[in-house]
Write a structure and sequence with these properties.
Elements: H1 5-14, H2 17-22, E1 28-30, E2 33-36, E3 48-51, E4 56-59, E5 65-66, H3 68-76, H4 80-91, H5 102-129, H6 135-143, H7 148-153, E6 157-159, H8 165-172, H9 177-183, E7 186-189, E8 193-196, E9 201-207, E10 213-220, E11 228-230, H10 246-249, E12 257-260, H11 263-271, E13 277-279, H12 287-294, E14 299-302, H13 308-323, E15 327-330, H14 339-346, H15 348-356, E16 359-360, H16 361-370, H17 378-392, H18 398-412, H19 416-431, H20 443-467, H21 472-478, H22 488-503, H23 508-513, H24 518-537, H25 540-564, H26 572-588
Parallel strand pairs: 12-13, 12-14, 14-15
Antiparallel strand pairs: 1-2, 2-3, 3-4, 4-5, 6-9, 7-8, 9-10, 10-11, 15-16
């Protein structure tokens, strides 16, 4: 579902960003903007800025920012459409009904029924736990040292020893066999009739991030297999995209998120005050899980079991988390198996210490790899170091790769220069460059610096336009949107130019809406906030020179792009070069800003 841009614009215009954020953050007016403590990271001095003029927010500490929709999405952990709906309701705007096909209506109706059934089942299991019939299940939970408050918070329950107990209850509620079959809670047999999937089990309702029950897990009481049983996949439950405990962890004010293996680990951690713990459900960590976690944090503490299976699970999880842009850290719980056992034995303070001492993911991988080699054997030592080099090749960013190479070489007493030369040779082999001239190690940083420098110049020029719209007519004569590099910067330039030509004003908040990717929105906000601050800190006497230098770089880049697209024999190439020189000379003589 996607509302029209007209609807989105009207909802945004009806929700002043200062008024909205004031409901979540205490703001104080300083100059033309408002400041407060950032709700997205811990700080003692307010670096969180909200601009009524720009209708945007930005934190100078953690660099998160955006418009009113982005704030609601980040703070409430909502999708864009949900944020639009919440703000529309807040401002009394009736959103248009989206027409659905018959098939879509049927699917929506089924999902609603399944959610109702899960809610009814959760209530039933919870009541049964606190009845005489559920005493042995209650004894089990109390034996695991769970308080009444914790049991209530997680909605723990009991499925009766009778194998059709829930089925009969739901049938009396009016649900048909066909719908009950699709809920995953009931099996319909043509001969035996309906019977429950869960019976005589301690029950763990599985909730989505909005605290709605979508499935269940059950632990057998007494003898029986399997020990733990989960709901099958249904139209409302997808194991690869659901995390146990997320509905609570997403509200945590703690840094990062703890990733565990089981229900009891999550519950025990929450009861001990570590309310940022979650677990995958009867399946290995998937890219879908990692993507969900990445919406809430950038740091993940892997608190898997300390046995061999848990170590292997952590090794499999690390590349998945890294691919999602997350930084994994490994929590060591030896000599205990899991977080539940650890906290019962050593307490919360010691587990907090283990979190603080969590091992860097790459060091963990390297130490596990080391166990496969006898480093006293020169051949094995060489093979180990070569494999480490291959692992270092996984870092695409040169600075990050060099930092890890330095650290890992110190750790295992490897000459740094030898390791870096070997990495370069690996790169040559992987890219087929062995027959060409050798890669020069300093070439990468020089190129990266040149590229990032041009990007910075283009961002600064956009900042000039936003901060000083009165300069637009003169800048428009010299630089067009086509002179910016393709991608986000050129897109922002096109929108800014179009807004100015259509209405004579800039609307940064509307531009941020055009980008669906969260990182793109924050880059846009960076232009409208961080770079504008750079301009404000430039002395008045220097501003004209700074703008001329910025304009010169962007104009030259535009000509470079045009020249690179032409053949060397093209007769118009000379004309273009002459034109470029004249344009640059003109800019250098200009007095655009009067000091």
């Amino acid at each position: 579902m996607r509302y029209s841009q007209e609807v989105i614009d009207s909802v945004r215009a009806a929700n002043d960003i200062v008024d909205v954020i004031s409901q979540y953050v205490k703001l104080e007016k300083k100059g033309s903007d408002y400041f407060g403590l950032c709700p997205f990271h811990s700080e003692k001095t307010g670096s969180f800025s909200v601009s009524r003029k720009k209708q945007m927010y930005y934190c100078f500490g953690c660099h998160r920012g955006g418009n009113v929709f982005k704030f609601i999405m980040d703070h409430e952990h909502m999708e864009f459409v949900e944020a639009v709906q919440l703000l529309a309701k807040r401002s009394g705007i009736a959103l248009p009904q989206v027409e659905m096909t018959r098939e879509q209506r049927e699917k929506e109706s089924l999902k609603n029924q399944l959610m109702e059934i899960n809610k009814e089942a959760a209530t039933y299991y919870y009541r049964l736990l606190h009845s005489d019939r559920g005493k042995h299940a209650l004894d089990y939970f109390e034996g695991r040292a769970l308080s009444k408050e914790t049991m209530q918070r997680f909605g723990l329950g009991y499925s009766d020893q009778y194998s059709n107990d829930l089925y009969q209850f739901l049938r009396k509620k009016g649900y048909t066999d066909e719908v009950l079959k699709q809920s995953g809670l009931v099996t319909i047999d043509e001969v035996k009739g309906g019977h429950d999937k869960f019976w005589n089990r301690a029950m763990f309702p599985i909730m989505d991030q909005y605290s709605k029950v979508v499935a269940f897990g059950g632990r057998v009481l007494g003898e029986g297999e399997p020990k733990y049983l989960n709901s099958p996949e249904t139209p409302v439950f997808h194991k690869s995209r659901t995390l146990y405990g997320l509905h609570l962890a997403r509200r945590s004010r703690r840094d990062g998120m703890i990733l565990c293996e089981g229900y009891m680990d999550v519950i025990a951690l929450h009861q001990a005050g570590f309310d940022h713990a979650v677990a995958s459900l009867g399946t290995a960590l998937t890219p879908g899980h990692a993507g969900i976690i990445a919406r809430f944090t950038k740091k993940v503490y892997l608190s898997y079991d300390s046995d061999k299976a848990g170590v292997n699970a952590a090794l499999r999880a690390i590349p998945i988390l890294r691919s999602a842009g997350l930084t994994p850290l490994v929590v060591h719980m030896d000599p205990y198996k899991d977080p539940d056992e650890f906290i019962k034995a050593l307490g919360t303070a010691e587990y907090e210490k283990r979190l603080e001492e969590a091992e860097n993911f790459f060091f963990f991988q390297a130490h596990q790899l080391e166990k496969n080699y006898d480093l006293k054997d020169p051949a094995a030592k060489t093979a180990f170091q070569q494999e480490l080099a291959g692992m270092l090749m996984g870092f695409s960013d040169e600075m990050e790769r060099n930092n890890y190479a330095d650290a890992i070489c110190r750790m295992f007493h490897i000459p740094v220069d030898t390791m870096k030369r070997y990495i370069i040779s690996l790169a040559q082999q992987n890219t087929g460059l062995t027959s060409r001239r050798p890669i020069q190690e300093e070439e990468g940083p020089r190129r990266q610096k040149r590229d990032s420098g041009m990007e910075k110049s283009q961002m600064l020029l956009l900042s000039w336009l936003v901060d000083r719209p009165d300069l637009f007519p003169r800048i428009r004569e010299l630089v067009g949107p086509e002179d910016f590099d393709e991608g986000l910067l050129q897109d922002v330039a096109k929108m800014l130019y179009q807004q100015m030509e259509d209405a004579g004003v800039f609307n940064p908040a509307a531009i941020a809406d055009r980008f669906e990717d969260s990182e793109d929105q924050e880059r846009v906000t960076h232009i409208f906030y961080e770079d504008v601050r750079v301009l404000h800190e430039t002395p008045e006497a220097e501003k004209n020179r700074a703008l001329v230098e910025t304009l010169t770089k962007v104009v030259q880049n535009g000509y470079d792009k045009r020249r690179s697209a032409m053949e060397e024999t093209d007769p118009s190439l000379i004309t273009l070069v002459i034109e470029e020189r004249a344009q640059i000379d003109k800019i250098k003589k200009m007095k655009i800003i009067n000091a």
